[in-house]
Design goal:
Two copies of one chain form a homodimer. By secondary structure, chain A is of the alpha+beta class.
Chain lengths: ~450, ~450
């Protein structure tokens, strides 16, 4: 199915009268209305959360923090234990789309998320778990939900199950949707919502910290392949057809990689973690590595409930994603890496060229292949921006996104487990779900 | 990618000179050369297997039997514990294909599997795990392996990761391949191997217990959609195009179902099983239900090693699969059921209309919807045959396969979680992997 025709107008051609001419201004204006206080607190101070074999709400809803023992032949570390987020519910991340005067718009929500350093960013129209929208915690109803679920569902443009961070979540997935409502439908515009073109969202993405992670993963699902070619180097690379043989070759390569790597992830009690301390203060690594599980207390103006406290993941290392790209035989290709992470649904997914969290003690020989491109010269940097991770679960977790372009004929030794792929091929693979990891999808959203 | 053109000749038109004119005779002849003794023995008599927190080989290779604690809102039982097979390796199930005088043939192997009641059946060219083919247990090399893996790989016609029994295996999957070698390639024909057309394999499937489970799952991956229409009602139903909207609707329905059902499968020690006894004799349910884990001692002529002993799963109930089909708006459709099983990779897969293991104590109200079609009148039975499950892991496990056709306009109340799908649509879904369960795939292989 080609979504290209639907989206090209929204991405490429500025509309005659934009629905929301000043998207930045809208965001700033909404942000000012939020009186919000977010503070780190000890885990022991979280009213209804209990630390025992796991860390759980006394209803056992929302999510839990548990332990996993991991064994794998991928990477430098053959076995370890770590805390991990367990959230078996499938969340809904959905953008409503509508054609207005010939241009397709997406309905974005200005949403406050307590973990984000830039507190208010654009999210999809709906981002909610079944616990949210069935209102387990007694919050407000979720606007526009009925257009995604049930009999009032609009025309489905995108509907994909995709994974989340496999190093932080155990087999978490979300449902990424874009649903179109008829142009003549009178859809009431709720307070925090604005109709934006894809072009506007691209501009916000380029500036960083304005489009939240959930919005980025949905945007990454849009494929233009099959649409009539227009201008724009990146879009043009989508439009190069992905031949059936190219897809089959990539799938066979992926099956080869899945056969070569093994992964055993066993759920354990928090008390069985080695090298981690779990107490009333936090759950943390003995040498301060990786991340901490902390308590966060929030009082906010217009979330589903007005004040709450919850555990969050706070990084202790700076995360980077780097995509190397190169025009190869006339088509822009990205260098992907087959990665094993303990929480992946099916062991291996494709990540960006470099996906790393740096810390002070790291030694040169511990760096993954191609890490030297973290310091690429400015003239090769095609995209660079700081983006936030899910501010509902991560506290001040920001990832530096970079796309580095190699000159057309510059040779590169491709390490084992890495492969050049066109954007069109990656989008074909993405449609199957659980193949392209969230770090790669986030960077792809920035690329367009 | 359309495989239709490749396979239609093999399925529909009898070749002028079949490569193996008497496939049944070949199978009988090979069976007679096997001097083979298979006996049930106590678990405690298995030389290198240890029963403790799990049941494992002292190398910890091959597979283990562990416990799982299951919680789900699917079906009648909200929580239970059970033993389950853990086999994280991705096995290879591969048919070589070759065009001979214009007809495509598949290279089948007459293979003895100790668990099968009909000991020697046709298997794929290769069925092996990495443990087999890297020869952990010191066996013989795997013939033709290099045509599937590595640089001598032929032209890939099918390459799909598919699940196995989700009620017996924890997240097990196999790689299903069909690889074509060039017509002019001089491929030595090893002793147990025969070139068969798809038409011959169909005939063997209809008689039952001649085509093993691993062969059936690979055959089920063949899709004809896109090929030029020819005769044959079942094939014609493949050829009805599956529209993009039909695929998207089915995927959205599947995502709805995955969101509605939850499943929590937690690995536990065998000693933590409730209602199960694990001792030196066997692992068995206190009321004799479901299955037993037993020891089996084998002495055989031409498997990878000559004598061995291993645990196997022995059923205590008779398994049935029933597919209801009906010509609807001119296209043959199958009634599939969205099922949750503890070992599925992603919680829900599509099974046949009825998938059940019957036991003597079962009460009418415990039967699943549409179980009455187990007793459909003979004139509605379009296919009926007894097929064996994997004889390398299951002991005397046979499943009665039936396809029941409803008259074109006979109404049927479709229960929630059930849906009519064309074969073409099911094959499109199958290509994504982990969507159609092995019981449905086995029945689909019989349908063609």
């Amino acid at each position: 199915m080609s979504l290209g025709e639907d989206f090209l107008d929204s991405a490429e051609r500025p509309p005659e009268r934009p629905a929301t001419p000043d998207a930045e201004g809208f965001l700033r204006e909404r942000a000012m209305t939020y009186a919000c206080d977010v503070r780190e607190v000890p885990l022991g101070a979280l009213a209804r959360w209990r630390l025992g074999d796991d860390l759980a709400h006394d209803t056992r809803r929302f999510f839990t923090v548990e332990g996993v023992a991991v064994e794998t032949n991928f990477g430098r570390t053959p076995r370890w234990t770590q805390p991990i987020l367990m959230q078996p519910e499938i969340g809904l991340l959905g953008f409503l789309a509508k054609r207005i005067a010939g241009t397709l718009y997406l309905l974005a929500q200005a949403k406050m998320e307590p973990g984000n350093q830039v507190l208010v960013q654009f999210s999809p129209t709906v981002q909610a778990t079944p616990s949210n929208y069935t209102r387990v915690h007694g919050g407000r109803p979720t606007p526009y939900l009925d257009r995604f679920l049930g009999s009032a569902r609009g025309r489905v443009l995108v509907d994909q199950l995709q994974s989340e961070q496999g190093s932080r979540y155990y087999r978490k997935r979300n449902r990424n949707m874009i649903v179109e409502v008829p142009e003549d439908e009178d859809l009431p515009l709720e307070r925090d919502f604005a109709w934006l073109t894809l072009g506007q969202l691209r501009g916000l993405l380029a500036r960083g910290n304005r489009v939240n992670m959930n919005a980025r993963t949905v945007l990454s699902c849009i494929a233009y392949a099959g649409a009539a070619p227009r201008s724009g180097a990146v879009l043009a690379s989508h439009l190069a057809p992905c031949a059936a043989e190219e897809l089959q070759d990539a799938l066979s390569w992926l099956a080869d990689v899945k056969t070569a790597f093994h992964l055993d992830t066993r759920r354990i009690r928090l008390g069985e973690l080695t090298d981690w301390i779990a107490d009333d203060q936090s759950i943390r690594h003995v040498r301060g590595r990786f991340f901490r599980v902390i308590g966060v207390s929030v009082s906010a103006g217009n979330r589903e409930v007005d004040a709450w406290a919850q555990p969050m993941i706070a990084p202790t290392q700076q995360a980077h994603v780097v995509f190397l790209c190169q025009r190869r035989a006339g088509v822009l290709q990205l260098l992907v890496q087959a990665r094993v992470e303990p929480g992946f649904i099916d062991r291996v997914e494709l990540g960006p060229t470099v996906q790393i969290a740096l810390h002070d003690e790291i030694r040169r020989e511990e760096l993954p292949p191609l890490a030297e491109y973290l310091d690429a010269p400015a003239e090769r940097v095609r995209f660079s921006a700081v983006q936030s991770e899910d501010g509902g679960r991560f506290y001040h977790q920001q990832t530096i996104h970079r796309v580095i372009e190699l000159p057309e004929n510059e040779p590169l030794d491709v390490p084992p487990g890495y492969r050049w792929m066109s954007l069109a091929l990656l989008k074909r693979l993405m449609r199957r779900g659980y193949i392209v990891d969230i770090e790669a999808r986030s960077a792809m959203a920035c690329l367009g």
